[in-house]
Amino acid sequence: MKKQQLVKSTSGIRGVVGNGLDPVMASAYGAAFGTFLKKGTVVVGSDTRPSGEMVRQAVVSGLVSVGINVIDIGIVPTPTVEIAVKQLNADGGICVTASHNPAEWNALKFFNRAGEFITPAQYRILEKIFNLQSFAYKPFDKLGNISYQDKWIDKHIRKTLAVKTVDRAAIKKRHFKVVVDAINGAGSVALPFLLEKLGAKVIKINCYGNGNFIHGAEPIPENLEQLCRAVKKHKADLGMACDPDADRLALVDERGQPVGEELTLTIAVMEVLRKTRGITVINLSTSRTTADIAKALGSQVLYSRVGEANVVAMMHSKGAIIGGEGNGGVIYPSFHAGRDSLIAAALVLSALAWGKKSLSALVKTFPRYYNIKSKAPLPADFPARLKRFERKAQDLLGKYKIDRRDGLRFDFSDGWFQLRASNTEPIFRLIVETTDQKWTETLRRQVIRFFR
Ligand code: MG
Predict the structure, then answer these.
(1) Contact, 62 vs 139, CB < 8 A?
(2) Based on the domain organization, do 213 and 197 belong to the same domain?
(3) What is the per-residue pLDDT across 274-321, written as a single tens digit (0 to 9) for each?
(4) Cα 305 off chain centre by
(5) Based on the structure, what is the number of domains in the chain?
(6) Centroid of ligand 1 to alpha carbon of 393 (angstroms)
(7) pLDDT averaged over every residue in the chain
């Protein structure tokens, strides 16, 4: 079999296990990260996929070989690693997870001492050390040590319950019934446990934490049929689904209809801005619904490039109080600056409790947009075609604004669309969103045709 390239981006290093990603490479990245840090302590955790233990052991071995002490916190959500790094005053963190990618994939996500993604500049240094294989190996008496801590999910939950914006008394009064689908991933224990602590009755499906991804791993509507059926069957108030590393959250309403990942962020933003004034940062692929709701609540809305590291960097530089990515990734920096399905779930219940509405009724109060996300093979001359397309856009749209920071994004009175090359696959993505279903579809067809 042809050796596949590892996929490298600011969100980490990903590969197919046994075909690009192997223990030698994982150990080398551990040694490279330790060499980059020079000394100190690194927190390591993983999700539930079958290769998790193998890759984690290899990474730990690499770290220890260059004198780094490791705190292994076991199988945990990605945000739990981020929180542990900060609370333990560690020097960095590594989470072994390929997030929403299928089970044959695994990946490494690297965090700095703040428990946030390392910057592109830091990543370039790490990559240089890895490529030169210039690791600062230590003799036997200078190796790092390994310790194990298994209470970090509890700590993450306690931290979530202590967030003042989450109205625990109001949530308790509603006696929510919630069906949780954790796709047997790292959220299998954490998400149901948090909801129970908030006073909800929880029905668990795919919460065995055994790494059996029995449906598509991304929490998008086509993968949530089982959850939708369970919500109806149990007459629940809502359904919640996370991805395998539990940083993204998607919702299903009480009628068993998926409301889409986008609205998780809208609801969380609404709940925070209702209580605190401040700036919102969302990425350039996020639904206008979130921006509309934020603006209606008096917030300035700023857009960042796609990717958690980019959103967080802008949140810090602008002092934003809430934001995230429309793919269900809520970031609440006063809690911690990373996507987190637990704080997202707590904010959603808090919002529902306050509004005294069902989820479908709450969603009906939002401006309605029709959003289509599509992808197509990346033409070799994509940048040149983008330039040509830009000159054509006027015929298609009339009056519009362009943002060129991440591919091209066009904003016009009744909608927007964004075209960008994927960081991780040889495809480009197109997201179209307008107030009219037909217009959204027409626009999508016309844009895609230009790039065929
Ligand atoms: Mg994820």
Answers:
(1) no
(2) yes
(3) 999 999 999 999 999 999 999 999 999 999 999 999 999 999 999 999
(4) 14
(5) 3
(6) 34
(7) 95
Domain end, chosen from 135, 150, 165, is at: 150
Is position 99 annotated as part of the catalytic site? yes
Q: What is the pLDDT of residues 254-266, one digit of tens each?
A: 999 999 899 999 9
What are the DSSP calls for 59-101, one per residue?
Answer: HHHHHHHTT-EEEEEEE--HHHHHHHHHHTT-SEEEEE--TTS
Report which DSSP code applies to 167.
-
Under 8 Å between Cβ of 367 and 186:
no
More confident site: 37 or 7 = 37
- Specify the pTM: 0.96
Q: Which of 99, 188, 285, 350 is catalytic?
A: 99
For 138-178, write each residue's pLDDT tens digit: 999 999 999 999 999 999 999 999 999 999 999 999 999 99
Average pLDDT over residues 89-117: 96
Angstrom distance (rounded) from CA 394 to CA 417: 14
Confirm whether 393 is domain-assigned.
yes
**Residues 146, 181: one domain?**
no
- Whether 372 and 424 have beta carbons less than 8 Å apart is answered as no
Tell me, in angstroms, the distance from the centre of ligand 1 to residue 186's CA: 10
Residue 298 alpha carbon to ligand 1 centre in Å: 30
Q: Which of 364, 387, 418 is the last residue of a domain?
A: 364
- Other C-beta atoms closer than 10 Å to the C-beta of 174 total 16
Q: How far apart are CA 337 and CA 335, in angstroms?
A: 7
Calpha distance 330→240 (Å, rounded): 14
